[in-house]
Specification:
Length: 295
């Protein structure tokens, strides 16, 4: 009949909408908000919430309730203030069972303790998992009594896993960006000289301490072959060959050229890596020369 056809179309639209959001949206909070809104819009429900398990694994906290325009503010406030342990409320029940749950009328379920904050009747929720690890719950409420839709619940079980994979991927990307930023901050602000050399021997980066130590402008140093700054070509060739082969160099003397001093005594201590070599250069003054340590 027409109602069955419409329900089937709604389920397809929900799956399509969520797949598109997780494929295109880079920001996790924005994506979750869009998912909550999309499901509410397509299924004609009123409110959606995403609950995230805390780091201690002891309670679920609502990261973002979403409501249609003009939604009940009391419900939203209560949702933000409350947390659920395993088995408590609808989110806690989903956590305990790690399975979707449908409630036709929350007013007849004493476990849905937030029902007094709004005119909501129907509710359903599903777990959000990553590689069988539970990380949260996503739930929706309707102002109408809603009879269970087993097909929709099964779809949402699958979508819960899809959302979990999305969160895992985006959080991994965020950790990588933070790690790269921390490395960049360390590199640029180090008190000792640092330079990053590619497998072909080209200087890819040099921090200000390195440039100041050697007396070069950045454009005079970065983008040039590291051998251009070594006084002993046979030594730097052996160094680059060893590193290219994955070897390790430690306490190997070499002489670097400065703009203001003919030669600079250096000690190279470099661990080889596959794609690049990071040369850590520091120096100290003696009565006769400035000695550079690279490692």
């Amino acid at each position: 009949d027409i109602s069955s056809q419409r329900a089937a179309q709604d389920r397809r639209n929900v799956r399509l909408a969520i797949s598109q959001i997780v494929a295109e949206e880079p920001d996790i909070e924005t994506a979750i908000s869009k998912i909550l809104a999309a499901v509410c819009s397509i299924l004609r429900w009123s409110t959606g919430c995403f609950w995230r398990l805390d780091e201690q694994g002891e309670a679920l906290h609502c990261h973002m309730p979403w409501q249609q325009t003009g939604g009940n503010k009391g419900f939203q406030t209560a949702t933000r203030q409350i947390s659920f342990g395993r088995g408590e409320g609808l989110p806690g029940q989903v956590w305990d069972k790690e399975a979707p749950i449908w409630v036709a009328d929350v007013r007849e379920d004493d476990g849905i303790i937030r029902s007094r904050y709004g005119e909501y009747r129907g509710a359903f929720a599903c777990p959000v998992v990553v590689s069988k690890a539970f990380i949260g719950v996503i739930e929706w409420f309707s102002e109408q009594v809603q009879e269970p839709d087993d097909e929709l619940l099964e779809i949402m079980r699958s979508i819960g896993g899809q959302i979990g994979q999305y969160i895992e991927r985006r959080e991994a990307e965020q950790r990588l960006r933070r790690s790269e930023q921390e490395l960049n901050d360390f590199f640029e602000n180090a008190a000792v000289g640092l330079q990053w050399v590619g497998p072909d021997g080209i200087v890819l980066r040099a921090n200000q301490a390195e440039l100041k130590m050697l007396g070069y402008e950045r454009e005079e140093y970065v983008g040039h072959h590291i051998a251009d700054f070594h006084a002993d070509q046979d030594i730097i060739e052996r160094v680059l060959t060893c590193l290219a082969e994955g070897g390790e160099i430690k306490d190997h003397e070499a002489r670097l050229r400065q703009t203001c001093v003919a030669r600079l005594e250096c000690v190279i201590a470099e661990r080889g890596v596959r794609s690049h070599s990071l040369l850590h250069s520091g120096y100290h003054r003696t009565s006769e020369s400035r000695v550079c340590f690279t490692g």
